[in-house]
Amino acid sequence: MKLSSKRKPGAVILISPFTSVSDIAFHLVGKVSALLKDRFNNREIASLVTSPTLIIHGKLDQLIPYQQSEELSNIMTKVETIKCIYPDQMDHNKMNIYELRLFIKDFLEELKMIEINKNLENFYRIDSI
To answer: Span 2-95: which CATH code?
Structure first.
């Protein structure tokens, strides 16, 4: 997220983003997290992002709660196009790659960044990534 806060890419795609490392640590170990120096505080820079943004975060994620993505999306007030997807059956490491690719493809098509391909045969092939 830091790079997209300093530059303006055509689009930003965030998968399971976090508000801060301290917030992740607090979620996992509680108050001991106060001992961490937070070098990755996305909460502080989210408001600087201006590019169209897609956030995908599984509701079953036990490492980074999906509510952190909701918080980031609410902070990203300069983004004209923001789309948030919270799949019910996705966790932090288990996701359906085909479903993920469709989310990304649909988002980029909405932004007119890719042409709609009527023949999706290659789209579904893992080796075509």
So the answer is: 3.40.50.1820
Please count the residues of the chain: 129
* pLDDT tens, position by position, 102-127: 999 999 999 987 655 555 555 554 45
How many Å apart are CA 68 and CA 12, to the nearest integer?
17
pLDDT digits (tens, 9 = 90+) for 48-90: 999 999 999 999 999 999 999 999 999 999 998 999 999 999 9
The sign of the dihedral angle between the CA atoms of 77, 81, 86, 92 is: negative
pTM as predicted: 0.80
For the chain, how many helices (H) and strands (E)?
5, 3
- As a whole number of angstroms, the distance between CA 22 and CA 109 comes to 35
- Label the pairing between strands 53-56 and 12-15: parallel
Query: Apex CA 81: angle with CA 78 and CA 86, to 5°?
Result: 110
